[in-house]
Amino acid sequence: MSEERPHIHRPKVETFDIAARTNVDPKGFVRPVEHYREEPWGLYMARHADHPRFHYLESWIIPELGIRASILHFTPEHVRDWDFYVDIGDFTRGEQVWTSEDHYLDLIVQTGRSVELLDVDELLEANTTGILDPKTSERAMLNAARAIDGIAAHGHDLDAWLTSVGMPVTWR
C-alpha cells in the first residue's frame, strides 16, 4: 500500500492594497477591507468574509517574523477550539501595497494551552518537487520554530510574545 502524498499547489499569494482598501485573495477575488493600520513592524487588516465557516477576518502581517497572525470570527455552527491561526511565509511591505507568499506551514494557537504546527508534509513536498527552493523551505521552518518557541515561552500567548519583541498587537 502506498502512502498518499499531499496535493501540492504553488505558494498562495495575496495582496493588501492600503490606498484602494482591498485585499486580493489567492484565488484573485478582490475583497473590500474595512480597516488597515500600518505600524513600523507590521500591517493590520480587518474585513468581512463571505466564507461559509467565518464571517470576519482580522490579521496582523509581520514581515520580520515571517508570520501572518489571524483571528477568524466563526459562525455559531462552526466555532473552533482555538484562538489564532498563524501562516508562515514571506511578507513584503510596499509603499501602498503589501504582498504575502504563504509557505505552507501553519500554527494553531490555543491561548494558555498549546501551539500546534500543521502542514509540514506540504512544505516538505513543495521542497522535494522544487516548488520551494531549499533556502525558502529552511526559512519557513526557522520562522515556524521561532514562533512556536516564542509563543510557548510566553504561556502559549501570541499577543504576549509579540509584545515582548516590540510588536504589540490589538484586535477588534
UniProtKB/TrEMBL annotation:
| Database matches in InterPro entries | DUF402, FomD-like_sf, UCP012622
The record, for Gene3D superfamilies, names: FomD-like
Give a single Pfam family match: DUF402
Domain annotation DUF402: ranges: 30-156
Its name, as the record gives it, is DUF402 domain-containing protein
